[in-house]
Design goal:
Layout lengths: L2 H11 L4 H8 L3 H9 L6 H11 L3 H5 L8 H13 L3 H12 L1 H30 L4 H33 L4 H10 L7 E2 H7 L6 H9 L12 E2 L13 H11 L12 H4 L11
Parallel strand pairs: 1-2
Helix pairs in contact: 1-3, 2-3, 8-9, 11-12
Length: about 280
C-alpha cells in the first residue's frame, strides 16, 4: 500500500472523517485528501505527527510493501501494529522526549528545596539552643543531607540523560547529516546516502526524506541524483530543471540535459553517520 492508502486505512480504523483527522493534526481537510490521494506528501513535522497519533513509525508509512521494509526495521514494523493498540504509551514516551529538561531538573529542584529547608531548620535550632550542639545535630541530620544531595545530583544526571535520548538521531536526521557532507561541485547517489546512514536498502527512504527536506537552502538535497546520474523529475523544490540549474551553478558537469557526468562529479564515498 502507498502512504496515502495506509493513512486512509489508519483514519478509518479510528472511525475518523477527514475533517476530524485534519483537526487532530492541525491541517486542512484538503491536505488530508491530497495526502490520501497521493497528490502531495506531508512534510517531516506532519509525518511525525501522524506517526505519533496513530502509534506507527515512519518506516511503516514510507515503505509500500511490508516485505520491502529493511530487515533492521522488520521487528519495528511488527511492533508498530501493537503500538497502535497502545497509543497512550507512545504519547507518554513523546511527552518525556519533549520535556526531557524539566523531567530531571524538577527532581533536582525538589531536592534543593528540601535541603534548603533542612539547613534553615538546623540554623534556627542552633540559634535557639546554642551552637555547642552543632556536631550532634549535624550527625543526626547527615543522612537527610546526603539523601537530598543525591536527589539533586541524580536529577541533574537524569535530565541530561533524557535530553540526550530525546536528541537521538532519526533516520531522516542521518540522511540530512550525510547530504550536508556532499561538497559543492559534486553529487552523490541515493544508494551512497543510504550506505552512509548504515543500510544500503534505504535508498527509497532517502528519497522520501529529501522530498520533505526541512531546510532546502541549508541541506543541499539537489546534490543527490540517481545511480546513473539522472536528476530527479520529482525534485520537490522546483522540479528537474531547477535541480539542473543549481548543480550547474556549482560547477557540476552534465553529459546531456538530465544526466550528471558521474565519472568526474560523483563522490567516491561518504563517511558513516553515527549517533550523536
Amino acid at each position: 500500500m502507498t502512504l496515502g492508502e495506509k493513512l486512509q486505512l489508519l483514519r478509518r480504523s479510528r472511525g475518523l472523517s477527514q475533517e476530524q483527522l485534519a483537526a487532530e493534526l492541525d491541517v486542512s481537510r484538503q491536505a488530508i485528501s491530497k495526502w490520501e490521494c497521493g497528490d502531495s506528501t506531508p512534510d517531516l513535522d506532519k509525518l511525525r505527527a501522524i506517526c505519533t497519533y496513530f502509534g506507527v513509525t515512519t518506516d511503516y508509512l514510507i515503505w509500500e510493501n511490508e516485505e520491502d521494509i529493511p530487515s533492521g526495521s522488520a521487528k519495528a514494523a511488527a511492533e508498530e501494529k501493537k503500538s497502535a493498540e497502545a497509543p497512550k504509551r507512545e504519547n507518554v514516551r513523546e511527552t518525556l522526549r519533549k520535556n526531557a529538561d524539566w523531567a530531571g531538573y524538577a527532581l533536582a529542584i525538589i531536592g534543593a528545596a528540601l535541603l534548603l529547608r533542612l539547613l534553615v531548620s538546623i540554623i534556627v535550632m542552633l540559634s535557639l539552643g546554642g551552637w555547642d550542639a552543632f556536631p550532634a545535630v549535624l550527625w543526626t541530620c547527615l543522612p537527610h543531607i546526603l539523601a537530598y544531595a543525591v536527589l539533586i545530583a541524580g536529577g541533574i544526571f537524569f535530565a541530561r540523560w533524557l535530553k540526550k535520548e530525546g536528541r537521538s538521531m532519526t533516520t531522516f536526521d542521518k540522511v540530512y547529516a550525510a547530504v550536508r557532507l556532499i561538497p559543492r561541485g559534486s553529487v552523490a547517489t541515493y544508494g551512497q546516502i543510504a550506505a552512509a546512514i548504515g543500510n544500503k536498502r534505504l535508498a527509497r527512504v532517502v528519497g522520501y526524506a529529501l522530498h520533505v527536506n526541512p531546510e532546502p537552502g541549508v541541506i543541499p538535497c539537489h546534490r543527490v541524483v540517481k545511480r546513473d546520474g539522472e536528476v530527479s523529475s520529482a525534485f520537490a523544490f522546483g522540479g528537474a530543471n531547477r535541480q539542473v540549474e543549481l548543480l550547474k551553478a556549482e560547477g557540476v558537469g552534465f553529459l546531456d540535459d538530465s544526466h550528471v557526468d558521474m565519472k568526474h562529479c560523483c563522490v567516491r564515498a561518504l563517511p558513516l553517520i553515527l549517533e550523536e
